[in-house]
Design brief:
With 292 residues, the chain is mainly β. The protein has 4 helices and 19 strands.
């Protein structure tokens, strides 16, 4: 039976998502349906699908059910959660002027503060992404730890992996989902589709990995990303956070950084307390209905 479902498309720095509201917990999609929705040739077109579900704990604002463009389930999405906050605020799912939103994700509850325009629409948000996960077994990666933070946490620092495209050195960080960050002289010169896809599924990443290529410049850290289950995207919030953390851990940058992505700029603060704050925009593109 064909279903007619209403949707809203939103994006954060060009990282775009199709949103469905599901207050009754009645919506689910097969991986094939998600892929159909996200197809940029035959569907709506997006980097992922987000279903707005009721929270498990009524003290929270909602549960973000996120699916990658290939239909696989993901734990967390940094740009997606800012868009999730915008959906909650703009469509009245939370009470007007609620100062903080606690949003449930598969990577835990994330707290969000936000700014609105004169009409009460959310324009930007700051997400407390929590502490990065550095232990290689928890990321997960089979790469052995070879460094330690000032607080005594072990981590994988610039582990070299050879490839048909040359050798790259990866620092591994999880922000609820796995990331491997390589600092290069010029991230714009990387063939992302080839190199990113090679490392995304490389054997040392048992659950695959998001792959970031970053270059530190005077105006900030320039980054491109090959997202697990998506391919290259214009932005990746968790990837920006992982890159900010990796830049600090490898001595390339301080704790406050602008991460400059193809779709815009995110600000990442790796606090002295060990948590990561990410600030960036959220925008609505259009709305409609889709038949599935």
């Amino acid at each position: 039976m064909t279903r007619q479902l209403s949707f809203v498309k939103l994006h954060g720095a060009g990282n775009d998502f199709v949103f469905f509201n599901d207050p009754d917990n009645s919506i689910d999609f097969t991986p094939q349906e998600v892929a159909k929705i996200c197809s940029r040739h035959t569907g709506i077109g997006a980097d992922g699908v987000i279903i707005v579900k009721p929270p498990h704990d009524l003290a929270n604002a909602g549960f973000m059910d996120y699916r990658n463009a290939d239909g696989s389930i993901a734990q967390m999405c940094g740009n997606g959660i800012r868009c999730f906050a915008k959906y909650l605020v703009d469509y009245g799912i939370v009470e007007k002027n609620t100062p903080l939103l606690n949003v449930e994700t598969r990577a835990g509850v994330k707290t969000i503060s936000y700014q609105t325009d004169d009409g009460g629409k959310l324009v930007s948000a700051t997400v407390d992404m929590g502490a990065p996960i550095l232990n290689p077994q928890q990321i997960p990666t089979t790469l052995a730890f070879n460094a330690m933070t000032e607080s005594g946490e072990v981590f994988v620092k610039e582990a070299q992996i050879d490839s048909p495209y040359g050798a790259f050195e990866f620092t591994c960080v999880s922000m609820g989902n796995p990331h491997a960050v390589a600092f290069v002289d010029d991230c714009d010169g990387i063939d992302i589709d080839a190199v990113g896809s090679y490392f995304e599924s490389f054997e040392v990443f048992p659950e695959k990995s998001n792959i970031e290529f970053a270059t530190v410049k005077p105006d900030g850290i320039h980054m491109r990303v090959y997202e697990r289950g998506c391919g290259e995207t214009l932005a990746c919030g968790t990837g920006a956070c992982a890159t900010g953390v990796a830049a600090n851990l490898t001595g390339r940058a301080g704790r406050d950084n602008d991460i400059i992505l193809l779709g815009g700029t995110l600000h990442v603060q790796y606090s002295q307390a060990g948590t990561v704050l990410m600030t960036g925009p959220a925008c609505e593109s259009f709305k409609g209905t889709v038949s599935l």
